[in-house]
Design a protein that fits this description.
Layout lengths: L9 H16 L2 H8 L3 H15 L4 E4 L2 E4 L1 H25 L5 E7 L1 H8 L3 H7 L3 E7 L6 H4 L3 E3 L25 H6 L15 E3 L10 H10 L9 E3 L2 H8 L1
Parallel strand pairs: 3-4, 3-5, 6-7
Antiparallel strand pairs: 1-2
Helix pairs in contact: 1-2, 1-3, 1-4, 2-3
Length: 242
């Protein structure tokens, strides 16, 4: 028993790309606009491809075209191939960056800063397998299997290599109803009568009141920072403020 087949030529590959665009839009006119061709040129390439493959890819209806069953199958196969090719190209470009990476960070910064950036990271480094752990305690890198940690603190940690990420700006926030009730607009001295919400894990080895005290000292505002509610996550303090 023998089997014969024809390899795809470069010209057919070009027509297949034209087909993918036309099939994606189900419109020769929209494909022509994307490919910077005329609709008649797109139609001519599709006709040639159908004749060469001996497959009807589109059904020509009045003023529109729709994919045939065979066309749907070919489109799915092409899109899968293009996705695989794109992944391989990125993998080749970033071939030195592969393997597993375990990141440890505070829950708040993970939710508000790290997670929104993951999609771009995965697209740039598809061969890196991420594991993300959260917590508020300091970690021992030699025992936990964590590769890097994102810490929030006012000074670098001893005996660790570190990379500065960003500064922060802090200021009082509350609901508009609470601000009106406590007459806070333009009267920051009234903050001394407010319930303060503290992020107890903001600074390592702190008492949990340092952020409010730092702000009060900077603006010379009298506050009793020992009062209020303590939270071990800043996003929970923000939720309570809302």
């Amino acid at each position: 028993m023998s089997m014969s087949y024809n390899n795809l030529t470069g010209f057919q590959l070009s027509k297949l790309y034209t087909f993918e665009v036309a099939a994606r839009h189900e419109s020769f006119a929209m494909a022509a606009a994307e490919l910077c061709l005329t609709p008649s040129a797109v139609s001519h390439q599709i006709n040639l491809l159908e004749n060469e493959l001996n497959i009807q890819l589109f059904e020509r209806l009045h003023r529109k075209v729709v994919l045939s069953h065979a066309g749907h199958r070919l489109l799915a196969a092409l899109q899968l191939s293009f996705d695989h090719l794109s992944t391989e190209i990125k993998a080749i470009q970033n071939q030195a960056l592969a393997g597993s990476l375990t990141i440890y960070a505070r829950p708040s910064i993970t939710q508000c800063w790290l997670i929104p950036k993951l999609q771009d990271f995965i697209q740039q480094y598809p061969l890196i397998e991420l594991s993300i752990l959260t917590g508020n305690e300091m970690v021992n890198f030699q025992r936990t299997g964590i590769d890097l940690a994102i810490y929030f603190d006012h000074q670098p940690l001893a005996n660790l290599n570190y990379q500065y990420l960003m500064d922060e700006h802090i200021g009082p926030v509350c609901s508009s109803e609470y601000a009106e009730k406590m007459n806070l607009m333009g009267h920051e001295q009234h903050l001394k009568d407010c319930t303060l919400l503290h992020d107890s894990q903001a600074w390592q080895n702190g008492t949990g009141t340092e952020e409010w005290q730092s702000w009060a000292n900077h603006f010379a505002v009298e506050l009793n920072t020992s009062k209020g509610m303590q939270f071990d996550r800043s996003d929970l303090a923000l939720l309570a403020a809302k």
